[in-house]
Amino acid sequence: MFLLTALWSPPQDQLSGFLVDQTITPPGREFFYQFEKKWVWPKVSEGLTLEVKEKRARGNATEVVIMVNNEVVGNYMITAREEIIEAYANYAVRQTQIYIQNNQELLKAFELLGNGIY
Question: What function is annotated for this protein (predicted)?
Answer without folding.
Answer: May be involved in the biogenesis of curli organelles.
